[in-house]
Amino acid sequence: MSDFDLDLRAVEEHIDEELEIEGSIVLGVLDGETPAEEWIEAISKGNVLVLNVEGNVNELASGFARDVKESGGNLVHFRGFLLVTPPGVDVSTSRL
After folding, report:
1. What does the buried/exposed string (b/e) look like for 41-76 if buried means 16 or more CB atoms within 10 Å of the residue's CB?
2. pTM
3. 74-78 and 81-85 as β-strands: parallel, antiparallel, unpaired?
4. Alpha helices, H only, 1-96
5. What pLDDT digit, counting tens, does each position of 15-42 carry?
6. Helix (H) or strand (E) holding 75
7. Are 51 and 85 a contacting pair, CB within 8 Å?
8. How far apart are CA 57 and CA 53, in angstroms?
9. Angle at 9 between CA 5 and CA 11, to 5 degrees
10. In the chain, is it the N or the C terminus that has fewer CB atoms within a 10 Å radius of its CB?
11. From CA 85, how far away is CA 66, in angstroms rounded?
12. How far apart are CA 88 and CA 74, in angstroms?
């Protein structure tokens, strides 16, 4: 055996600290009826939005998209849905 020493308890404690995620996945409809401020508030609380887009996504998201991007969040339009994530939560599109 080698002299490699691994403290698994220390690793587990570090992993637990890194994986603390707050917020929820919020399902909704982006149709212009919900004020942009409500979507911004949901994102600011750490939630991920999965919004079914009913109309022109650019027009419907214009009230909050810039704020989300400027804060470090992400917006991804995929198959009729808009995924909106808070800062620190990335959307991988590498498999598309």
Report:
1. ebbeeebbbbbebeeebeebbeebbeebeeeebbbe
2. 0.77
3. antiparallel
4. 8-18, 36-44, 57-61, 65-70
5. 655 555 678 999 999 999 999 999 999 9
6. strand 74-78
7. no
8. 6
9. 75
10. N
11. 13
12. 9
